[in-house]
User: Fold this.
Amino acid sequence: MNRRDFLALAAGASTTAGLPLLGCHEDTAIPIIDTHIHLFDTTRPQGVPWPTKNDGVLYQPALPNRYRQIAVPLGITGAIVIEASPLSKDNQWVLDIAARDKIIVGTVGNLEPGKPEFRRQLERFQRNPLFRGIRYGNLWDRDLARQLSNPTFVSDLKFLAQAGLVLDTANPNPALLAAIVRLTDQVPELRVVIDHLPQMTIPESVAARKVYAAHLRELGQRPQVYVKISEVLRRVEGNIPTALSFYRARLDELFDRFGEDRLLYGSDWPNSDQWLPVGAGLKLVSDYFTAKGRTVAEKYFWQNSVAAYHWQKRNDSQPG
Assistant:
């Protein structure tokens, strides 16, 4: 099957063809590292903080075996698990699950900088090479902007940077972008990954848009800041467009600001099921990045993730 035939098939209802998405043959396909998936088990006796029981789409176990069945036919060879729980004990639960399936190349946990136990917990978890950093932002009733005035919080993020670990930031909005500018002023050595930036609502007022643009421009000039091109799909008046033309202007803006070396692929599985199956979102970004040439596509689909997360391959199908 050539690329043209495959993309025609991928545009169909299932969007989950059984060949690697990014090449005509397996030996020439670009391997994909998915930098954003979530794991949880709704059958655990204590339940899960997220998703809620009334979520008819997401409330079912999301474990590596289920993910593998979706990901491998699409050419995804590895994934990084992003926290889906504020509970400290769930950091170890995710690491234990990840240890048993080599498709997982890293985890980003949930710890609270500024808390007395932070450094002790971080030292414990970072002994595991799968543990690649923590997530903090507009999530679990936490506020990065407010915490940046706390010297202990900032000191703990310096400790995170010294450990060679990364900070993922959750649920972007203009205030969070402003906070990331402040953060990277205060801790310039910290690698920061901005999750789901394509999904962020752009301010409507002219003044607010100018401020947003200035912050985005500033972050684009900071080489330690990476952006996940994840949660690209949007729901518009009850419909979810799948044509690249609908999303191109937003993708162009982020590509122009951050360049080919600092953009990462992330599916946001299984949260992505609220929009469309993983294959639909993957086809969209594949069309966009492969049009820029193989070198750019390889950076987006796996090379930049190594620079951002410093993950290590766990099986021969993974690049690096």
User: Anything to note?
Assistant: Residues 1-21 have pLDDT under 50 and may be disordered.
